[in-house]
Specification:
By secondary structure, this protein is mostly helical. The protein contains 13 helices and six strands. InterPro entries: CALB2, Calbindin_Ca-bind, EF-hand-dom_pair, EF_Hand_1_Ca_BS, EF_hand_dom.
Length: 271
Amino acid sequence: MANKAQQPPHLHLAEVTASQFLDIWKHFDADGNGYIEGKELENFFRELEMARRGAGVDPSNPTFREKMKEFMQKFDKNKDGRIEMSELAQILPTEENFLLCFRQFVSSSAEFMAAWRRYDTDRSGYIEANELKGFLSDLLEKANRHYDDQKLQEYTQTILRMFDLNGDGKLGLSEMARLLPVQENFLLKFQGVKLTTEQFNAIFTYYDKDGNGYIDEQELDALLRDLYQTNKKEVDVKNLTGYKQSIMSLSDGGKLYRGELEIVLCREPIV
């Protein structure tokens, strides 16, 4: 996607609005893959330096590379060499700070999953536009933010534009999880162990011994350990406990049904 303007928008501002933040994001995430990386990242840092210093910078200068390295050490929280949206929110605070506002409301992945369960009222594996509006309304009230219906609608549309990457008017769990701080986004830990629907059905049937359609916390523990061993990943007991608690936040009285677990472990939920 070619940049429409030579000068990137809004980088000179001390604070940006939610819409301006989105403009900046779309300008630099040129391929729309959800990250600013590679050449995009170099372009972003160069333009940010120019906007803040009011002078041109030379990317071939060793000093530029050193500054960019320091910049990434500060803001690239998960050290993957690229900037994702939650990290950009730290670099460019929004006027309303709705991303950080979200984190005050849902500061851990367990809280996030509990909130997800509340607002995905039809258990579709998605939060749709009308469900998202209720979610944001509660978020703003808990954060003591004043808003009117027009502002709430604007926030809803902005969040949809940010995270609804396929434009279907609804947000999947993994899309919404991008609002979490990187270190709390436990779904990232399962990126390398995502199951196909067939694999998921086989493994769920194996652990649902009595065929009642759900597994309990002990069975989930065994399932996750097996997943890690199968994918040759070291099992960090402390982290595994956290992941298990987060996933069990989706359960109904300790019963984790097939559809709820499928949202976490499969590429796409069955619809």
